[in-house]
Amino acid sequence: VSSTQPLFDRVAIIGIGLIGSSLALALRQSGLAGSIVCGDASEQHVKMAMELELVDEAMTDNAQAVRDADLVILSTPVGTLGGVAESIGPHLKKGCIVIDVGSVKQAVISAVAPHIPANAFYIPCHPIAGTEESGPEAGFAELFQERWCLLTPLPGTDEAALDKVRQVWRKCGAKVEVMEPATHDRVLAMVSHLPHGVAFTAIGAADALAGDLKQEVIRYAGSSFRDFTRVAASDPIMWRDIFLNNREAVLDILRRFKTDLAALEQEIVRGDGAALERRFEHGRALRRGVTGGRFVEPPVLKDAGK
Amino acid sequence: VSSTQPLFDRVAIIGIGLIGSSLALALRQSGLAGSIVCGDASEQHVKMAMELELVDEAMTDNAQAVRDADLVILSTPVGTLGGVAESIGPHLKKGCIVIDVGSVKQAVISAVAPHIPANAFYIPCHPIAGTEESGPEAGFAELFQERWCLLTPLPGTDEAALDKVRQVWRKCGAKVEVMEPATHDRVLAMVSHLPHGVAFTAIGAADALAGDLKQEVIRYAGSSFRDFTRVAASDPIMWRDIFLNNREAVLDILRRFKTDLAALEQEIVRGDGAALERRFEHGRALRRGVTGGRFVEPPVLKDAGK
Predict the structure, then answer these.
(1) What is the pLDDT of residues A128-148, one digit of tens each?
(2) Are the C-beta atoms of residues B163 and B171 closer than 8 Å to each other?
(3) CA distance B73 to B23
(4) Among B209, B220, B264, the residue to mutate for chain A (most A Cβ within 10 A)
(5) Which of A60, A140, B16, B263 could connect to B20 by a Cys-Cys bridge, CB 3.0–4.6 Å?
(6) What is the ipTM of this complex?
(7) Mind telling me how many Å the CA of B268 is from chain A's nearest CA?
């Protein structure tokens, strides 16, 4: 029994993948939840959630899962959040807090908010955390430790509800910030969505090389190619939904990137050594955090045993 | 005193940066070199090479440094190698082996080979190893451990000389392969030069964002952006010379990459979820080494103490 008074008698987690299962474990450790129930469309996930003792109850019926819950966490893929919200909306307890954990915020808010009744509180969240793995067996309580969690509350959000959500994430170890949904989407397009799109594209280009050359490329793909493409290893459905749902911001960043890439190409074509040197010097300075602010290096994940 | 019989009475290292200083330390440990001398245009480097006890002798005069050397290692930036070869050529001992460590091979061979006299042996090498640091103080003996070193010998190269060069790299811990210079340049354009160009470009795009947004981007640049741009932290002069000297192969890969990136963009514009999912699924499979060969993960660097 934890010394912390449960903040919520009953927590419902809808979607018990990497984020959902990690939240279940972190919430259990935190003592913030009296009991935890999960709903998931996959019977296999439901079975595993019970076997792994992630939750107290698990079921495939989301409407039933949210009944009597004081906190409902929507952790299904971004593209499904609207449908999930619609199906649970009529079954939410009065005064219940609903959060989502989607990697895109404007499109998710448009899809979810209309389905949350006026007597419940909806607070969009985005914990910037993940691994290359997915599914209920991938979860671990420390996933959010020292990671950012961005909250993008709607205008006029209840302060007490917002404060409770802050407490949830802080207890899970995250650093919490409040941000405008539009700013969130533009920032993430740059720091996360562009790198993913580019890494997938580089891997595709390597794959498209002719037979012998491709084999050599695969053999000598060393640490730089590995670091560069590590971001491309996570869940394809998640990434499909991110690109579909953050279309405008991603396309804007892609256009800037393509313009700059064309400029690099022209410098190479011209053999313009001075321009290339300036470009690389500037890039290194930025990378090292000399110019302007620092590119923040998040602390190393703490040991699971701590 | 090492149990290994010195393979070379005298080794000259021209350019005592990260690679040169690491080779000096590794060669000393290996017992392959009777004595090690370095030549470097920078007086500061010469001073540090002596202070750090990297070599037995250090001087700014390269022609003097190579005198009586049985092995000469050219480890200056790619763009300077032709000039360095020209200045040392007349002073090389008969039967001397000359190697370079440039990241590009065809252009380097064209620049260096004409200056090596017929009674010496020139063998182009490329150890695929490096860190974010540069200069003589950045060197460490284990830099080449478990890393690839690609040799791109010219037609008719003396087998005994080639075998000695193999031994040098193997004693430094590297895995040695022989390859055609043109193949080398195309493979490296894909696994190394493209990722660097793209990472520098992404950093530049982040830097070009308007003030407030840029600050947010810098703040929330998490592990994916950090991994993705790590490759952009190394020496700007080295990268300028690589892009100038591997122009054709880099431009070819850049064109393929741009075509694929435009296809991704069009899928986003169209909102083509099925195409995006296929693309990301395929990328993940390739990244994980399921389709075709494995993207090789090199072993972790051994402890310096071993």
Answers:
(1) 988 878 899 999 999 999 999
(2) no
(3) 9
(4) B220
(5) B16
(6) 0.85
(7) 6
